[in-house]
Amino acid sequence: MSELLVRPKQTPEADGSVIKVSPEDARWGYVGFEVYQLQEGQSFTKETGDREIAVVLLSGKADASTNSNSWDNIGQRTSVFDDSPAYTVYVSSNDQINLKALTDLEIAVCSAPGKGTYEARLITPEDVAVARRGYGSLEREIHNILPADKPADSLFIFEVFTPEGNWSSYPPHKHDQEKLPEESYLEETYYHRTNSPENAFAIQRVYTDDKSLNETIVVKDGDLVLVPKGYHPVSNPPGYKLYYLNVMAGPVREWKFTNDKDHEWLLEKN
């Protein structure tokens, strides 16, 4: 199995966790990613320490609070494939997040280095800009949870919905060098979900120009792919819907990328 592929636990731990990847686990410096499946009535608490955290409610409802704010009965999706953006709680460093599951609840906990710059806040579906990107078999839908124009110290967060038979993160691009303003260094995770967990799969490539990294990964429902460097396109076979949650962070909060020159010509057709 690829070292870039993290499979979820089949049975959640006592705290509800099915995926836990720290920067140390990933052997990089910025992005942490965790997934929890909580039962109705179960509680979740996490200290942020020196990191900022964004908790994305993938499905279910919860009461949420931090040291200074609280929000009751948030969440409205029964699945990531419901036609609605997610509720997300942003929490700064030196704070904590508390959740109580009002229904069965699945959450993604996204983290990166924080400076304590911004107050905790609730990001509602109405706050999330929805955009179509690409054309034809390259078209996909983007939910901009935490894009560059929204406040955070390090994190970028997006939900991406790739229709059946389409490609996304395509033409292939990379962001693995600190050479602004042309390109920024950003680590990235892809948390994949499908609408047919038993049958569906997708393909993700991760490769560099010199092919010193050249992986072709088959992903199933609930899998996480780590992208430490290189290009990273995704293909969704016909017959199924594909969702992934992207988390990015690096030393500078700018998203500047370089397209694979072999495929950049596809942008001219758009």
TrEMBL record:
GO molecular function: 5-deoxy-D-glucuronate isomerase activity; glucuronate isomerase activity
Keyword Isomerase: yes
InterPro entries per UniProt: Deoxy-glucuronate_isom_IolB, KduI/IolB_isomerase, RmlC-like_jellyroll, RmlC_Cupin_sf
SUPFAM superfamilies assigned to the protein according to its UniProt record, in alphabetical order: RmlC-like cupins (SSF51182)
Protein name per its UniProtKB record: 5-deoxy-glucuronate isomerase
Keywords of this entry: Isomerase
Pfam families cross-referenced by the UniProt entry: KduI
Keyword Secreted among record annotations: no
EC number assigned by the record: 5.3.1.30
Catalytic EC class: isomerase
Tree of life domain: Bacteria
GO BP terms in the entry: inositol catabolic process
Coiled-coil boundaries: none
